[in-house]
Design a protein that fits this description.
Layout: E1 4-8, H1 10-14, H2 18-27, E2 31-38, H3 42-48, H4 58-65, E3 70-76, H5 80-88, H6 101-105, E4 114-116, H7 120-130
Antiparallel strand pairs: 1-3, 1-4, 2-3
Bound molecules: cytidine-5'-diphosphate and magnesium ion (MG).
Length: about 140
């Protein structure tokens, strides 16, 4: 029953997709346990994506992720990590399944609208990157 971290990236906020994406989360039965709107500094974007440091897309990704406001979400519910990644779709919108967020709204492999943790370990570290424990609703 671990929580996962979701992010609505700057392209999603800019294009007013926040409501649409929150609806998809609610309608899927996942549980919203924490939410913030913020604008990442370049430094924080670098830290958040440190695992990708040195890759060809890293610099551009950091610029993009600090280019405007984002919404960070603590998402709970049974199997939340997998289920949120299923809702998002594959990294490359062109390869993502129909009816996924990235397929519907992504415009490039970089500007793919949403982020989701990929394992229980990363979920834990990524949630604590943005939320204190008392900023997340307890599991019922
Ligand atoms: O986000 P996801 O876990 O699906 O993919 P990732 O491999 O962890 O990459 C993190 C993010 O970097 C992606 O969501 C894209 O925004 C970006 N990326 C990119 O711009 N070009 C790539 N070839 C791969 C990833
Ligand atoms: Mg990833």
């Amino acid at each position: 029953m671990a929580n996962t971290l979701g992010i609505i990236k700057p392209d999603g906020v800019r294009r007013k997709l926040v409501g649409t994406i929150l609806s998809k989360i609610e309608n899927s039965g996942l549980i919203l346990r924490g939410m913030k709107v913020l604008h990442l500094s370049k430094d924080d974007a670098e830290k958040f994506y440190a695992v990708h440091e040195g890759k060809s897309f890293y610099k551009s990704l950091v610029e993009f992720m600090s280019s405007g406001p984002i919404v960070v979400l603590a998402i709970g519910g049974h199997g939340s990590i997998e289920r949120w990644r299923d809702l998002m779709g594959a990294t490359d919108p062109a390869k993502a399944k129909y009816n996924t967020i990235r397929r519907e709204y992504g415009t490039s492999i970089e500007k793919n609208v949403v982020h989701g943790s990929d394992s229980p370990e990363t979920a834990k570290t990524e949630i604590s990157f943005f939320f204190r424990e008392d900023e997340i609703l307890p599991k019922e």
